[in-house]
Write a structure and sequence with these properties.
About 35% of the residues are buried. This protein has a single domain, classed as MTH938-like (Hypothetical Protein Mth938, Chain: A, 3-Layer(aba) Sandwich), CATH 3.40.1230.10. It is built from four helices and ten strands, in the order E-E-E-E-E-H-E-H-E-E-H-E-H-E. Helix 2 (about 50-60) packs parallel to helix 3 (about 80-90). The strands form three sheets. A five-stranded mixed beta sheet has the order 5-4-10-7-9, with helices on both faces. It is of the alpha/beta class and about 120 residues long.
Length: about 120
C-alpha cells in the first residue's frame, strides 16, 4: 500500500504524517528510503540529472514497478538522463516527471505497482 503524501515545501516532504528533510524514494510496498544522490553526483557533479546508475538503483528498490513518479524539485530542476530514460523504458517502466508539488498529486491518485523519487529543493 502506498503512503499518502501530505505535502511538500522547500527542503522537506511530509509522507503519512512524517516529515523528511531530504530527497526520498518511495517503494511500491510503501517503505520510504533516502535518495542516493551520490550515484548521479559522481557522473554529473549534481543531483539534478538522474544518472543510469541511480535509475537502476531506484528500479531495483522499486521491485519492478510499472510506473515511476519523479518529483523534479520545487522549481522543476531535476531531469532524467537519456541513458536513464532508455533503461527504464527497456524495463517497461513508465515515467511521470513533474515539479514535486504536482508530482505528489500524481502520486496520491496513482494505482498499481508505482514507485516514487522526490527531490525536495530547487
Amino acid at each position: 500500500m502506498q503512503p499518502h503524501i501530505d505535502g511538500t515545501r522547500f527542503g522537506s516532504i511530509s509522507i503519512g504524517g512524517e516529515r523528511f528533510d531530504y530527497d526520498v524514494i518511495i517503494r511500491p510496498d510503501g517503505k520510504v528510503k533516502k535518495r542516493k544522490k551520490k550515484l548521479s553526483k559522481r557522473v554529473y557533479g549534481s543531483s539534478h540529472t538522474i544518472s543510469l546508475a541511480e535509475a537502476a538503483y531506484v528500479y531495483e528498490q522499486a521491485g519492478g514497478a510499472k510506473r515511476l513518479i519523479i518529483g523534479s524539485g520545487q522549481n522543476g530542476m531535476v531531469r532524467l538522463s537519456g541513458e536513464a530514460a532508455s533503461y527504464l523504458a527497456d524495463k517497461g517502466c513508465r515515467i511521470s516527471l513533474a515539479p514535486t508539488p504536482r508530482a505528489l498529486e500524481h502520486w496520491n491518485r496513482a494505482t498499481g505497482k508505482v514507485a516514487g523519487l522526490f527531490h525536495v529543493t530547487c
